[in-house]
Amino acid sequence: MHQDSMNVPLPTPEEQAELNDMYAQMDQMHMKPLWNQIGNLMPEHPTPEAVPYKWDWSTLHKLAERSGELVPVGRGGERRAIGLANPGLHGETHVAPTLWAAIQYLAPGENAPEHRHSQNAFRFVIEGEGVWTVVNGDATPMRRGDFLLTPGWNFHGHHNIASEPMAWLDGLDIPFQYKMDTGFFEFGTEHLTDEATPETSRSERLWAHPGLRPLAFPGAKPSSPIGRYAWEHTDAALRDQLALEDAGFAGVVSPGHAAIRFSNPSTGGDVMQTIRAEFHRLRAGASTLPIHEVGNRVFQVFEGSATIVIDEKPFEINHGDVVVVPSWKKWHLEAGSEGADLFCFSDFPIFEKLNLFRSYSPEGI
Amino acid sequence: MHQDSMNVPLPTPEEQAELNDMYAQMDQMHMKPLWNQIGNLMPEHPTPEAVPYKWDWSTLHKLAERSGELVPVGRGGERRAIGLANPGLHGETHVAPTLWAAIQYLAPGENAPEHRHSQNAFRFVIEGEGVWTVVNGDATPMRRGDFLLTPGWNFHGHHNIASEPMAWLDGLDIPFQYKMDTGFFEFGTEHLTDEATPETSRSERLWAHPGLRPLAFPGAKPSSPIGRYAWEHTDAALRDQLALEDAGFAGVVSPGHAAIRFSNPSTGGDVMQTIRAEFHRLRAGASTLPIHEVGNRVFQVFEGSATIVIDEKPFEINHGDVVVVPSWKKWHLEAGSEGADLFCFSDFPIFEKLNLFRSYSPEGI
Amino acid sequence: MHQDSMNVPLPTPEEQAELNDMYAQMDQMHMKPLWNQIGNLMPEHPTPEAVPYKWDWSTLHKLAERSGELVPVGRGGERRAIGLANPGLHGETHVAPTLWAAIQYLAPGENAPEHRHSQNAFRFVIEGEGVWTVVNGDATPMRRGDFLLTPGWNFHGHHNIASEPMAWLDGLDIPFQYKMDTGFFEFGTEHLTDEATPETSRSERLWAHPGLRPLAFPGAKPSSPIGRYAWEHTDAALRDQLALEDAGFAGVVSPGHAAIRFSNPSTGGDVMQTIRAEFHRLRAGASTLPIHEVGNRVFQVFEGSATIVIDEKPFEINHGDVVVVPSWKKWHLEAGSEGADLFCFSDFPIFEKLNLFRSYSPEGI
Amino acid sequence: MHQDSMNVPLPTPEEQAELNDMYAQMDQMHMKPLWNQIGNLMPEHPTPEAVPYKWDWSTLHKLAERSGELVPVGRGGERRAIGLANPGLHGETHVAPTLWAAIQYLAPGENAPEHRHSQNAFRFVIEGEGVWTVVNGDATPMRRGDFLLTPGWNFHGHHNIASEPMAWLDGLDIPFQYKMDTGFFEFGTEHLTDEATPETSRSERLWAHPGLRPLAFPGAKPSSPIGRYAWEHTDAALRDQLALEDAGFAGVVSPGHAAIRFSNPSTGGDVMQTIRAEFHRLRAGASTLPIHEVGNRVFQVFEGSATIVIDEKPFEINHGDVVVVPSWKKWHLEAGSEGADLFCFSDFPIFEKLNLFRSYSPEGI
């Protein structure tokens, strides 16, 4: 920690009065001395105000359902989305200083009207089906396990054609863009331009073929052109990694721990400029090494159960539960008796691009 | 602007009670509805809380002098630096949401002890000489017009060997790293490791030869390896641009407006990952086109005078005055009768790297 | 064209004798004047010695079969591969100045021993199955339509476990590396290290999931980590593009012309540093626009038939036929009555990386 | 080395006749077997046909002078340039497989007319002054020690306003572009568009300020925008490195060996896409470590003398002498009793961009 004071004798009362007078003048002129605040502004390592926290899926879902009864969805409010507010962040709806996470809920027959914004967004479907997301006129099904993108400044809306309501996880970089003053927003049509319900999106038909890219669209794109990462592919990739491990070959991250990163096929990089997304599968009993990382992670349990230990505190997490790991908090995962499938998103691309990323494993690599 | 409400009838008292009950439950569970806050969180264009503001050099300098009388410099407080606090930012010492600007003051014989931090820092010398900054053991003179770098995680200190005090502008990305939870800090030696006072730094002898790089240090470096951009070179580059304009050739940014960007010779990019630095010279009577830009700019007048119009409000600026242009505020410069030399720094590299930069000139290109 | 001479009177006989004497002296000192050869060395546009040429599959296959009867495969000769020698290239086995194309033939039970070389290599399987290529110990099946990689400096061998011989197209950058003096070669085991015959390679299990990359292998790789691009995916991608065209959406390169580029999923770029590979599908009657391009293309017809017009000369091409388009020769394709599927490889990445690529469409874009 | 034959018994006369018949058929069909040529095509390491060779400056200069008497310079021949023809390269005017080196000679009052070509070119001035190179209308002085660029597709000419003839070294990638079929050429005006003789070029006034770039020209450029790297800067950079060495600090490549790379200030990379240029200064008695490198180097001695040992053979080199080190030939330098200043250019950027570069130091790092 920073030392609390200069290496000098305490000021006399007269000196203190003079100091007080000077500080008052500074205050009036919108100036502030560094020497009184450096320990707070420039800590020895990240000391986030955000805290580790878990939201239970049952609570989230119940309140989402309740809002479905009480609140219509439409222009103005735009989305029936309930944001997770990190208890350390003074009531702001920020799951972490840079990230937004919310449960969005759409009842049968409802439409979430079209708009676009510079904020990057994704959806992860924890359960259910029957909603189509329409991105720039491309209708994209949403089904259990799917990961969907609506990168910044693409028009998008949602409509539910099923007989059941549907709820899913929304992730955005709203807090980052809010703090950075970079946000733009534009309304689109009030009703969706396309109510088609195809089996697959056009974006997938163009871009979701392994290692193949359409010749008509060359070059690097800032965000992934794949609108939906269908669950069947994610699941197959994870199964393959574990099968390779069983056969004695490389592939898993660590013993019993398979994982993929969702990527932009035009660059091999992250799906969006500010957000990374991954999927982790741990065999029963497997665990990960404790690690400190610059940046914030949010996990949602898809299947199975696990314990995540953050800053020495264990959180039991089950289907649908959401948990946040703030920057530099040591964490590790221990899978439960049936193993665990976890979706994860983070703000790591921001820090990697700015040369600010660091990590540290107390137990070595 | 966002519409204030859903396109629906107002709730009845009974409905409102149910809503209130639901909102109270959400609050207790650390959840918040998007529909009540979207207009604030996701504005149609950036609506910064930071305001355009000017700090007078005479005030800055006078208070710096006063602090030199009352406050010792040493371990703990680390630096006698007085930060500029944007009046819109709730008393935080942030000149803009991402940037720190301060006047640092060092009396004859004083030492600012060594430390290092992940925050990127520079100094711009508005006047005076006699201080040496020591970066990783490389003593670098500070003279009028010089621009000096101490990129993240390099040990650095300052010592004043002159018979006069010296004051200069410090710029850092402290607010950005504070909000992002990326900051690391480490104390170095209490007294400088090197009290040499060479005419030029070793970093300049290696890297400040135009278009030539030392063969022994190949590859791209995250920050510029040049420790000091000496005023004589900056001045010559600006004079050359105006001479080319006089001779009818390309070079200036716009009529009567010469400008250079300080760059990393190992990449051609910005000097540091989060901070851009430029120097502008306007002939008497020259002006720039009004423009909106994503990102925050801070100007300090080096010589001459100008009017900067921000959000339709004019600020008269003279030698040493510091002015901030928050994100997306329309601004332009009009040089005074003797022209104007202005140092400028900004956070634009952050937004360019994340594909969030935009600009708009109402009067065309 | 360059003018044939200086704008000066012809030399007198005495002058010519002096010139001849000087040229003789130069010759002896290993010097040569530019002025006598500039028109040849620096033409107004590329004037390749390589000529457009077609090799019939029936001839290629018949001679490959014959060599299977007469020539054993083993250490020393290494591969039973018959290279295509462009008739313009003075008997060198270069299909184009930079590229090698060959038919490789392996009889039942035969092994092509392991080796590695800096030359980048691929295989395209025009027909048949039953051979496995083993790359660094990863056994990879070869089946009709598959595209396989063995990038530079990876050990590889082949073994045929089928009851039938198998022939395929080999493509390499041998001529480029030969001319550039960059080639390295190392023998591996005489017999394959792995005689496994899995349904799919390990490289595919790790990397051939659309938009998903294994977390354990981050970063950009110089060559694609996918060992086999299975035909089922290529075919599906092309079908999808044509289906999108039928539905009125973007996707095809031009009317009736679907095409994909094989890509490196860790970068989005070409599969190997020197070689680009594509697959084109033209509907019956579809054609492409005439174009000049810097670089050399080689096509092999997979299914159907087409006419390729190169430098105004038509070549009828059918299943298995190989045709080469030298640099800057104008070419276009016209599909036959049943449409055409064509594999294509080229050296374009070399020229794009060195800023030497150009193209020109006489009929506009 | 490759084994000379398959591991099989020699063919019987009957078998040989059948083989001969097959080879004849192949030949007729423009096909050739790999197994008879793989040892040549794919050697264990680069085995260049180019040989190490030295050209004496006195011979070069005398023949350049003689050509000045006998051959006019003008449209058609374009340049009075005498190319160095590596004795191993079959009479081609290639100093190395990829590179052209020539002595260009211009008498007082002469003009070399304007043209442009895709080939990248530079000039290095071994001695003299009085010629201006005009690049896209920018007149650039040529003086002893200067290094000048005319990157691909920029119009350029030369004119000599001095009372003395002048000779210099031209370097281009003519052989590379000739072999690759990438060359374009266009005539410009017969007489120079600009006969100005400024002290410095406009390109230097814009770009040759250390670490400063003109704001009006953002972004990365494929070639360096600096037209002339003036000797005074090169010399100062080398002196500074040796002074740092004397003071005990890092900077030189190895003991007594200072060196700079000429670089593109908009990227930090090489001056042109295909050519690297460096300047080396060795103290008296200093030497470099033996090394093998993929790629070709050409040295010209500027001052002093040295021995360069290539493939175990020593070459004594003095002022103006040119020597070539072909790919993968082991080489090292030993400075003479007065030290040595050497200009060096190479084709290494080609191989680095294509992931084909390798080096090996038998004596360690």
UniProtKB/TrEMBL annotation, chains A, B, C, D:
The Cupin type-2 domain covers 104-170
One family name in Pfam for this protein: Cupin_2
What stretches pass through the bilayer? none
Provide the alphabetized UniProt keywords: Dioxygenase, Oxidoreductase
Q: Does the keyword Oxidoreductase apply?
A: yes
Q: Which InterPro entries match?
A: Cupin_2, GDO-like, RmlC-like_jellyroll, RmlC_Cupin_sf
This protein's name: Gentisate 1,2-dioxygenase
PANTHER family from the UniProt entry: 1,2-DIOXYGENASE PROTEIN-RELATED (PTHR41517), CUPIN (PTHR41517:SF1)
Q: What is the lineage of its organism?
A: Bacteria, Bacillati, Actinomycetota, Actinomycetes, Micrococcales
Q: Name one GO molecular function term.
A: oxidoreductase activity, acting on single donors with incorporation of molecular oxygen, incorporation of two atoms of oxygen
Q: Is Ribonucleoprotein one of the keywords UniProt gives this record? A: no
